Amino acid sequence: MKLRVGSKQLIKDLNISVVVDTIRKHEPISRVDIAELTRLGRSTVTGIVNLLLKEELIVEVGSAESRGGRKPVLLKLNPQARYAIGIKLGPSLITVALTDLHAGVLSKVTRPISSRQGPKAIFRALLGAIEDVTRDNPRSQGRIIGIGVVLPGIVDPSTGTSVSSHLLNWANIPVKALLEAELNIPVFVDNDANAFALAEKWYGAGRGKDNLLCVTVGVGVGGGIIANGQLYRGSIAGAGEIGHITIDEHGPLCACGNSGCLEALASDGAVVRSAREAMDKGQKTSILEVAGGDPSAVTREIVVSAAREGDRVARRILRETGQHLGTGIANAINLLNPERIVVGGEAVQQAGDLLLEPLRESMKKRSFSILADRVDVVPAALGENAWLMGAATLVLEEVFKPPIYGMEGNKPTLAIPSLVDPAAEGR
Ligand SMILES: [Zn+2]
Q: What architecture is domain 83-197+385-402?
């Protein structure tokens, strides 16, 4: 399958892309303020704005307070002028979303997978899901500006390669190259927790904050760092792996090979392991009852349900899980000095304060008080869409960043394609 890339290609030149990016990030905004922020001349800005209005990439929305003279008209992006695709690849599920230019999810398609299937079968399922989501939205045909893919583990975003993912059981899979060859559209790949952090920074609980630590808790424990307003990736894009800092040198074995990692102590698997240990020791708990009498049917969901009904063992397990998370985050606070911690992922969405309260206590106890006093811990705001929005944000950040990324024939190039109809240029 080839996705049809619009013949009216992306942004015409550097100045246009700078103006679009400024409007996207500061909307609603007046022409005067665009000129001030971009340092472009007012007549240049006016010319570009007229072009963008004609192309319906931006719209006028009312007017701002006058600073003397005529009230300036405000401009904002027309979010459905173009589209992006955001994809989350997990060990058991693929989710493909069509988003607008603010990364808002318009529709999504999911496909169950198994990490035992191997990359080939997973890519087939992925291509099928992309085809479905675009077919369901005919307006998106020829108007998709790129695809963002996020997955667990170490990802090299410069080549779009999944370097190592123990959850998917992948090593050196060239995700970007495989999809670009198949779909003829720019593809951007990153770690899922990084994407989560980007989405929460731009659209969620981290809005307006420039130094953030975002932590996701579920099947694994992941982290994304926003430092000085930018994603901090480290030297080979391996930064943020808070799930694999050691909490207990003599703790249980982790999937990464180390023992006592935060992930080995606070992921869904750890919660289930603790519940089974308690049952094996004959501790009085309703967990087995909630699981229908089958110890192998115990899940994190079941432990949280039991805790909500007041089961003491389940509450103790979640308290300890929260404490481990707080210890890991305390270490990160001393290292990074963030102003906000955003905690999300399926486990936090479900358990809420049952995890967050002990997390906050342990975090305060174990980090420098001067740093802990100035950081707040908040639940993530975007729910399960955060990863998809983050994946789409990878596209929006790159496509609107000069020089503009494009495709020439089947080859991705650093080109300056045009968002603008060539006919409109002869104004
Ligand atoms: Zn580990």
A: 2-Layer Sandwich (3.30)
